[in-house]
Amino acid sequence: MRNPQLDAKGELTHLLTLEGLPAEVIVRILDTAVPFTSIAERDVKKVPLLRGKAVFNLFFENSTRTRTTFEIAAKRLSADVINLNIGASSTTKGETLLDTVDNLVAMNADMFVVRHAQSGAPHLIAAHLNRTGRTHVHVVNAGDGRHAHPTQGLLDLFTIRHYKRDFRNLTVAIVGDVLHSRVARSLIHGLTTMGTPDVRAIGPQTLLPTALQALGVRVCNDMREGLKGCDVVVMLRLQSERMRGALLPSAGEFFKHYGLTPEKLAYAKPDAIVMHPGPMNRGVEIDSAVADGERAVILPQVTFGIAVRMAVLSMLAGNG
Amino acid sequence: MKIEIRNGRLVDPKHGIDRVTTLYIAAGKVAAVGAAPAQWHPNRTIDAAGLVVCPGLIDLSARLREPGFEYKATLESEMAAAVAGGVTSLACPPDTDPPLDEPGLVQMLKHRARSLNQAHVYPVGALTVGLKGESLTEMGELAEAGCVAFSHAEAPLVDTQVLYRALQYAATFGYRVWLRPQDAHLGRGGVAHDGEVATRLGLAAIPPSAETIALAVIFALVRETGVGVHLCRLSTADGVAMIRAARKDGLPVTCDVAVHHLHLCDVDIGWFDPQCHLVPPLRGTRDRAALRAGLADGTIDLVCSDHTPVDDDGKQVPFGESEPGATGLELLLPLTLKWAAEEKVGLPAALARITAVPAAILGLDAGHLAVGQPADVCVFDPAAHWLVEPKALKSQGKNTPFLGLEVPGRVRCTLVGGQVVYEGPGT
Predict the structure, then answer these.
(1) Does residue A123 belong to the interface with chain B, where contact is any CB pair within 8 Å?
(2) Model's pTM, two decimal places?
(3) Residue A297: how many CA atoms within 13 Å on its side-chain side?
């Protein structure tokens, strides 16, 4: 089966994953996002690129940040935005995921921004739309299970490029719960595609997937060793439910080994930047002194995220 | 009714027969092979020139979905699928709803199957009540009602003391026990093999040790009790190696593999194809190679369809929520032939693994065509290829990873007890 995010001409018609996306496409998205960063500074924070288009935020899993940034991005492009926080409600009514989608397409949806707890749910929707010939409807993956969060990956790449210019001489460390992290997977694919020579994953063995090396990642269990010489440190959010199921003994012990403190950050390069996809757990994966310190670029990430999402939505709608 | 199946390549693995000859059937039984019996006036002649004539296939695992899951499949639809696939005897696992843990359910199933007058159905009884893994079923009553073996299907049997006692109790009366080796804890929540594909796709994983640990436990119990066990649906290379070693040590174990696992591996999941969501999970290429070699060298005794019809609603959902399983009755022969051709295994040896060997595991005098045997026969065209597509399948379940692929081996005609129960296109 062809990757359903590319159409017959190989053009991006859905954004489902960064895996397999050509570097030129990634660069095009990042370049498209650059002028959008200045729109927020204007008096009129709108461009008409998506005027008359209906963007449906289809969230089967709770999210405030991602949904809000997508909503802002779509509104700044002048789209009509409809938010659907489905949670478990329609599935408990017996409606299947694809029935929900078909109903919304009947309401003339142009784009779906989909978040789902199951890996692959946006692929299922995209493949269903492709198979039934409704190729004018586009799907953007806003996070599926542990699989992918491509717009987060892109905004991370945008942030790294903004501060470090060139991907091809960087050392990037991704720290924490990689096993359950769609953010980590998308960033890993993005970085390896962009030619970053040294991508490291740091965490306890219980939180690192078995075949991580196959993704082109160097695996470190020791944080200090893993941070040595890093240009970029990406901290992952640790969900509190990981304390159940014998993955970790306690948040305190996790912080002791893998929490980013000024002492541990000193192992990275002096000009290393610190990123976090949010929402942060202070004192669990990151110390406030680092989170609020001058090397943290966590808030710029949020701002860039809107520009990157504007770029993705406008490109899928046929602009650029 | 006298039927003459003329000039086919008769392959009867049990008796070492592989030659072009004619099979004579009278009063539901094999009357003669080669030379016609005296006073022979057939009511019907089937020209089998260019075709293979073999014992009807015996499938060790086919879910018929009755009782309880009639929306997925019915006895009518799946029995039609069986004979269309050349399968004349099948064992069905106890994971129905309710499970096959009461004689009444088994009798009803046998009765329903008999009245359809197609393939023979051999229910496998539940080893524990409700498949809950707590208390033993009335195995004696169930055996009297028609159960040929006892298993726990895919339900976890966590308590090793229950397992130990179940093996001892079954052995007391000579009942066969079939077990699918999977550690209940390590496999929990998993939907895919713990490897590169699960890592990439972010799917909850089942490590190979889920199988090997369970095998080690079962072997220890077998060694201590001396009770034989049939192991179902091997999936890992390490598991195959363990079975090879155990058999070398003289442990009374036999085992099977599902036909899908001979051809597919985790890579075939592609972009979350729910058709490739199977139990046990499709594993790596090394595992697949070991299963193929194990079946060829006899470490794995036989291959079964693990037929599991699932409706569209069960598959048109995200991978992790999809119902596992694939339809298989009509693909058992083609996919076994494909494996045999690719591994350079001769036709008689390949057919043995879906006729005489499963009959022996079931304890049936079947799967061969000696004179006087009930005439359960499959006639197929080994050279004909056909496209696997929904309309080509009689099973109510159209769920198979092989949709859109061409497979070899088209069943032309199936006989059960000397009656033609299926005639395919081109007969």
Answers:
(1) yes
(2) 0.95
(3) 23
